[in-house]
Design a protein that fits this description.
The complex is a heterotrimer of chains A (237), B (238) and C (180).
Chain A: H1 3-17, H2 22-36, H3 39-55, H4 60-71, H5 76-97, H6 103-114, H7 119-128, H8 135-146, H9 151-163, H10 168-183, H11 188-207, H12 214-217
Chain B: H1 29-38, H2 46-63, E1 80-83, E2 101-102, H3 106-114, E3 151-158, E4 165-169, E5 182-183, E6 189-196, E7 199-207, E8 211-213, E9 220-223, E10 228-235
Parallel strand pairs in B: 1-8
Antiparallel strand pairs in B: 2-3, 3-6, 4-7, 5-6, 7-8, 7-10, 9-10
Chain C: H1 6-13, H2 17-38, H3 42-59, H4 69-95, H5 100-107, H6 115-126, H7 129-140, H8 145-152, H9 156-179
Helix pairs in contact in C: 1-2, 2-3, 2-4, 3-4, 4-8, 6-9, 7-9
């Protein structure tokens, strides 16, 4: 990167980093919402925010959802509906991931729920990462499903890898590989199976004799039955 | 000194004058008509206002001026629905994964570590002295203590004919004025680098304050609830 | 007379571009009105105003609340108009002096179609710049002499003389037109 561009981007980082910081950001968001929404919609979404706040649900994702909708010029009733639905998903995510979960984790959980991932999978992912953030595993899971990997397959992959101590970086790398495979024409489910086996092989080497066998690791999570397909895919040469 | 303007008086010597000698334009029909005609306010378009504030925003982005993120530009014209970009906007530089390049340790670590010195609120921060920015600017976007450290993430768009490009996503409250991209005159590429929390982020580019544009190099995701779509990036340490 | 509320001003001082936009929206008509009266060419006027706003934005963190914002803004704008005017006169010396027809063509303002406004335009142009500025700031923009003193850097009594001379010239020049 040229020095000028680097400086410009460094300056942009400063500006961007100030983005949501502090109460000013919140009041600005509220002012923007008030300006962008018609009065009844603004009042309606404000009630949703108040209710969420009272339940201990983070409000910022809800405000952001409304702001996203206004940027897209979504009609008022639809904005309200989207905010209500997200609040419901955040409730479920909080119940599944635990009350100590971060805002980013709850948002990631809500996004996973939105795409069809069952609540039980969130519970399982949290159980496998009780002290580690689950934002990346949930994000990868959501993205795999968005890339048309079935929910069961994607859930199996993420859960099996978490059981074997996959790092967020490895998960992301795997997700990239799957996307690449899918773009190259490989059926999404097959791509997931191939990449999961490859990753598990690597993890196994790193772990040494940990007593785990591949079939056991690929066992379907309780929330995602039907893992048999994974064993039908031949190992990557 | 605020201005460099010329304040010298190059006209005729002027006598002192008391107030009672002053003409009263209200009593002079001609002068009253003159003042009335000159007092007509011209029409001003919102586009003019946006242009001026856009220039200020660009300057603020260049100088790292604090608080300058709080600008949500109003579309100057008709808002075009979110749509796939024209092919000419495809970036041609080699980038990892998507158009979005994630720097693991380099820029992110450097900037975040070095932004620790105190500076007075509202101080203008030149690009080369960005290390003087206030500590409040350290707060990572969409991240908290439980999550891994934010990672400097670069977004690039090739839009040679654009006057302004900004990045919008939940990480900046979908604020059109929060994250302007800077155009590199040499390549014509628009880019911005900002710290993002690890995880999956949906975003779009806003071109000329009015056209929401997907990242041609990033995966697209549908949003049935809003009837829209967005670009996706998975952020994390490679 | 419209004026900006202190809260918006404080936000703009802190770098809030939304607040700055609100201020631009509020004052832009007055700024354009003043610049168009000061400068012959409407494009020059727009550029002077834009230039002034950029300087206002840069200087906002140093703006002192003791001074009225209107006065501060017009000081910057008047300086920009003066600087631009000097440049214009210099540029036109070689271009226009031998071509009065061109001069007239450049003077015509597209928005001022009727003869009365055109006459005012000519009469204003005939005024020395300092008189034109003082007259416009006092009688059209409503600034007090003390505020204009800060704008122009000359004493109040001298300013009053400038305004009086401007009034005398405009009355003498336009009285007949007004009677037509």
């Amino acid at each position: 990167m040229r020095p000028g561009l680097l400086l410009a981007t460094a300056a942009a980082i400063v500006v961007a980093a100030a983005g949501e910081a502090g109460a000013q950001g919140a009041s600005s968001a509220d002012a923007r919402l008030r300006q962008a929404l018609d009065a009844p919609t603004y009042q309606a979404v404000s009630l949703v925010f108040d209710s969420a706040r009272a339940r201990g649900i983070p409000v910022r994702p809800l405000v952001n959802r409304a702001l996203q909708a206004t940027l897209h010029r979504t009609p008022g009733p639809r904005v309200h509906e989207a905010v209500v639905k997200l609040a419901g998903r955040l409730d479920v995510a909080k119940g599944a991931l635990g009350p100590g979960s971060s805002e980013a984790e709850l948002s990631a959980g809500a996004n996973a729920l939105a795409i069809g991932v069952p609540r039980a999978t969130l519970v399982e992912i949290r159980a496998l990462s009780p002290r580690q953030p689950v934002t990346v595993p949930l994000g990868v899971l959501t993205e795999l499903v968005a890339r048309e990997v079935t929910i069961n397959r994607a859930s199996q992959m993420v859960v099996a890898l978490l059981r074997n101590g996959v790092t967020p970086a490895q998960l992301l790398s795997l997700s990239d590989d799957v996307s690449h495979d899918v773009n190259a024409g490989i059926e999404p489910g097959a791509a997931v199976d191939i990449r999961t086996r490859g990753a598990l092989g690597t993890l196994q080497q790193g772990l040494g004799d940990n007593g785990l066998d591949t079939d056991a690791r690929l066992k379907a999570p309780a929330s995602a039955p039907g893992a048999g397909a994974a064993t039908k895919v031949p190992r990557k040469p | 000194m605020i201005d460099d303007g010329n304040t010298r008086d190059e006209f005729a010597p002027e006598d002192d004058m008391s107030t009672d000698e002053m003409p009263d334009v209200r009593e002079d029909e001609t002068l009253r008509d003159v003042v009335a005609a000159l007092g007509t306010l011209p029409a001003v378009s919102e586009a003019d206002v946006q242009r001026i504030v856009g220039l200020a925003a660009a300057e603020a982005a260049q100088s790292g001026r604090r608080g300058a993120h709080r600008w949500s530009a109003q579309p100057a014209g008709e808002v075009v629905p979110l749509r796939a970009p024209k092919p000419r906007w495809f970036t041609s530089i080699p980038l990892a994964a998507a158009a979005t390049l994630v720097f693991a340790a380099g820029i992110g670590g450097f900037v975040i570590r070095d932004l620790t010195d105190d500076a007075p609120a509202g101080a203008r921060v030149a690009p080369d002295v960005a290390v003087q920015a206030g500590p409040a600017e350290l707060t990572p976007v969409a991240a908290d203590a439980r999550d891994e450290a934010p990672i400097a993430t670069q977004f690039v768009l090739e839009a040679p004919e654009a006057a302004r490009v900004s990045l919008v996503g939940a990480f900046n409250g979908w604020d059109a004025g929060a994250t302007p991209l800077v155009r590199d005159p040499a390549t014509g590429l628009w880019s911005v680098t900002l710290p993002l929390a690890p995880g999956r982020h949906v975003y779009a580019f806003l071109v000329n304050d009015s056209v929401l544009t997907l990242d041609p190099r990033a995966p697209e995701t549908q949003d049935p609830e809003l009837g829209t779509s967005g670009s996706v990036i998975l952020v994390g340490t490679p | 007379m419209i004026s900006v509320d202190p809260a918006t001003l404080a936000q703009a001082k802190a770098g809030d571009l939304e607040a700055f936009a609100a201020i631009v929206r509020l004052y832009q008509p007055r700024c354009l009105r003043f610049a168009r009266s000061m400068l012959r060419n409407p494009q020059d006027a727009e550029e002077a105003v834009q230039d002034a706003w950029m300087r206002v934005y840069r200087a906002l963190p140093r703006y002192e609340d003791q001074e009225r914002f209107d006065s501060w803004l017009f000081r910057i704008l008047a300086n920009r108009c003066r600087t631009r005017s000097i440049r214009m006169v210099r540029d036109q010396r070689t271009m226009v002096h031998d071509h009065p027809a061109m001069d007239i063509a450049e003077t015509a303002h597209p928005a001022e179609q009727d003869a009365w406004r055109e006459e005012i335009r000519h009469a204003l142009d005939e005024l020395p710049e300092a008189q034109r500025e003082a007259f416009l700031l006092h009688h059209v923009e409503g600034l007090a002499y003390e505020e204009i003193a800060a704008v122009s850097g000359v004493g109040v009594s001298a300013l009053k003389m400038r305004v009086k001379r401007a009034c005398d010239h405009l009355r003498g020049r336009l009285q007949e037109v007004a009677r037509d």
